[in-house]
Design brief:
about 425 residues, 11-stranded mixed beta sheet, binds L-homoserine
Length: about 425
């Protein structure tokens, strides 16, 4: 059979890694796919830049549109990132009848509905395994491996940069900014690193996972995101004393009222496997009705780890070239006419437990005022620790764990507590999940 011709848009970390692995493992990949897969064309903004891959035998161009419009190309690998040029190129390639493989989580989370509809019309596949959790085959696991289950919830460490920062703060007492700079130098961070630290990148990935878990349309605007930039070393230490680790989790949960979609720093019991996923590693814990909990762990970023997912998608596409569209795995796991617009809960309706850290004046009655406010909002206290004041200070750090409550109640209680004259500064609130 004649080889499948691939055009690569973007020869950066992921594009370069993909070219290398495709060349190195060509024989093994061809044995699996049933056809040889060769990169014949690639584009890059600056052709004079040093690359991690050899481009021998590949016709290079600075214009990705040339490749998208080349009738010889069967599959386009969109590895340039961003949501403007990437979107135009993908839609044009689809209109030209080409299959797409992309690692672009923002593109799928924000424009996936439109892209998949266009792909359906054109009878082509858009594959995006590399968009979530790098090399972990989590899309395949949920979309195919768990298709006999009802998925109850999933929780993931799906941003390597954020996890690296929290791990280094805890283990080495390093400062936030210093660790972020290192993650950028290592090539893990997004072009705009606020996407990593503010939970936007994890929000994109969570949206994709939730869509394929629950069969809902992509709707990134409904994902609640809170970043890790306010987490202090003190919080990391107090959480440790209480038997918890702080992780930046993406959580999607089906409740009787609707679906929770949220990304925020979260205390999780340190005995959970996922609490021990450190550094740039990613992990996704999926709780489904038949199989129970399953955990997927691996490298969430990096040239060859992401290339692994890109190439698996290329192989899948090659295998489906002879299948009619209706026999393929649906883009969002559920058949197009079975996607349901279930309601997404507003952040106010989230139900969870909380870690609270506040600073109080050391005088009688202050703690009673606080417990009174919590009681008024129907919030029960699970544990409370009052730390010793530093020798010349009159203010005490107090740490509390609460039982489950509704976010709206917690918001009101926190504002009332912050209004007490005996409370200094703001209350730090970190949500807590037992993930049991
Ligand atoms: N910036 C992302 C991360 C890269 O740190 O996880 C992989 O999506």
């Amino acid at each position: 059979m004649k080889p499948v011709k691939v055009g690569v848009l973007g020869l950066g970390t992921v594009g370069g890694g993909t070219v290398n692995v495709l060349k190195r493992n060509a024989q093994e990949i061809s044995r699996r796919a049933g056809r040889d897969i060769i990169v014949t064309r690639a584009s890059a903004r600056d052709l004079s830049r040093e690359r991690i891959c050899s481009t021998e035998g590949i016709s290079l161009s600075t214009d990705p549109l040339e490749i998208v419009n080349d009738p010889e190309i069967d599959i386009i690998l969109e590895l340039i990132g961003g949501t403007t040029l990437a979107k135009d190129l993908v839609l044009q390639a689809i209109a030209n009848g080409k299959h797409i493989v992309t690692a672009n989580k923002a593109l799928i989370a924000l424009h996936g509905n439109e892209i998949f509809a266009a792909a359906g019309e054109a009878n082509v596949v858009v594959a995006y395994e590399a968009a979530v959790a790098g090399g972990i085959p989590i899309i395949k696991a949920i979309r195919e491996g768990l298709s006999g289950n009802q998925i109850n919830w999933l929780a993931g460490i799906i941003n390597g940069t954020g996890n690296f920062i929290l791990t280094e703060m805890r283990d080495k007492g390093r400062d936030f900014a210093d660790v972020l700079a290192e993650a950028q130098a290592l090539g893990y961070a997004e072009a705009d690193p606020t996407f990593d630290v503010e939970g936007i990148d994890a929000g994109h990935k969570l949206m994709i996972l939730a869509s394929i878990a629950f069969g809902i349309p992509l709707q990134f605007e409904n994902v609640f995101t809170e970043g890790i930039s306010n987490i202090t070393r003190a919080d990391v230490e107090y959480a440790g004393e209480l038997g918890y680790r702080i992780k930046h989790l993406g959580i999607a949960r089906k409740t009787t009222k609707g679906i929770e979609l949220r990304v925020h720093p979260t205390l999780i019991p340190e005995r959970r496997l996922i609490a021990n996923v450190d550094g740039v590693m990613n992990a996704v814990l999926v709780h489904a009705d038949a199989v129970g909990p399953t955990l997927y762990y691996g490298a969430g970023a990096g040239a060859e780890a992401t290339a692994s997912a890109v190439i698996a998608d290329v192989v899948d596409v090659v295998r489906t070239l002879t299948l009619s569209a209706k026999n393929r795995v649906p883009h969002l796991a559920f058949q197009d006419n079975a996607i349901t617009d279930l309601s997404i809960l507003s952040p106010d309706e989230i139900e969870t437990t909380y870690y609270l850290r506040l600073t109080l004046e050391d005088k009688p009655g202050t703690l009673a005022d606080i417990t009174h406010i919590l009681a008024k909002h129907n919030i029960s206290i699970e544990a409370i620790i009052q730390k010793e004041p530093h020798h010349d200070e009159t203010e005490l750090p107090v740490i509390m764990l609460t039982q489950k409550t509704i976010e709206k109640e917690m918001n009101s209680a926190i504002s009332a507590i912050e209004n007490l004259s005996s409370v200094t500064g703001q209350v730090t609130r970190i949500r807590l999940e037992t993930l049991g």
